[in-house]
Protein 1
Amino acid sequence: MNGNRFLADTNTFIYLLDKHSALQPLLESEWLYSFITEIELLGKPGISTKEIEKVQGLLSVCIKAPHTEAINSTAINLKQNYKMKVPDAIIAATAIEQKVPLLTFDKDFAKVREVDLVLLEY
């Protein structure tokens, strides 16, 4: 570990599973994730047993951020102030409440002023 901590968005994990080169310098960092990311990754229709094992293996070396009432409250505020889908609001709120940067490839998070964003390029 290099001391860096991030909350990784679902798409970041998808690119990590595909071995995207932009993530290489961040592999020594501590990665957190929201329960939403776990649901999105493992709830994919038609996911194979092999894919499930691969995702579970990846998540096992990361930290699942606890879901709290503060996250709910922040997600509600984000939904009120920005046009966001519920999963994105929860993920952004989790990063805010955990006080860690949000690691993502999703440019839609750039509109959320409250989040410390690390926006990766494809």
Protein 2
Amino acid sequence: MAKITITNDGFDIDRTCCFSGHRPEKLAQKGNINSPQIRRLISMLYLEIEDAIENGYTNFITGMARGIDLWAARYVYEKRVKNPNLKLICAIPYYGHGKKLRSSEKWEYDNIVASADKVYILEDKYTQNCMQNRNRFMVDNSSKIIAVVDNYRSGTGQTINYALRKGIDVHIIDIKNNAPILK
């Protein structure tokens, strides 16, 4: 599949930030958003997004995975109400991604896709490398990444390492240290 570049659609990479993070079951309390640990984590994620906005970032790419990606996308979606300059971009790894979601996650996923400023579906079907291709697409089209990580041997860890090699601004919320790390 040919590389898709967002700049052809008028998005400025220098003002574009992407997200990466673990699925809820890989987080404390299995990602229960009512738990104090997850509420704190989401607050830290929101603070990083606020900081990005204050520093001129207006375009935000979400990979549409459960957990961090959807939480970040929801926040950007809510911020657009007061700041119409913000743009939400969905990078969906393959056609049909999200079909197995249930209840509130399915509703949220569909709502984010329907309200996004741009949606990219990067593969026609699931492939062994489609998630990695999606992650690389997001990094290749951003100048900043906000990542929430516990296990650096994960897809999120690989995405962080790729972003570091590409030289983009990396902001990590390290779950083990429960604090932001700037690279």
Protein 3
Amino acid sequence: MSVSVRSTILSQFEQVAREQNRKLAPLSDDLVLMDSGLDSLCFAIVVARLEDALGFDPFGATEDARFPVTLGDFIAFYEDAAK
């Protein structure tokens, strides 16, 4: 994959925040997703776009998927699923 999973995720967070007129918190691995400035609609858009961009949906791949708590958890979840 030419573009890293991390950079794809970060750019989607930024793009969706702009499009939805949301104030995005500074992105860091320890940022709690619920404090990011994105709402559930924004997260749904991010996950759908990541499936298009990366070609997989890690949430659909496991039956007991728990939604990651921090941005670092979210990125690791996708990076692990990409392996």
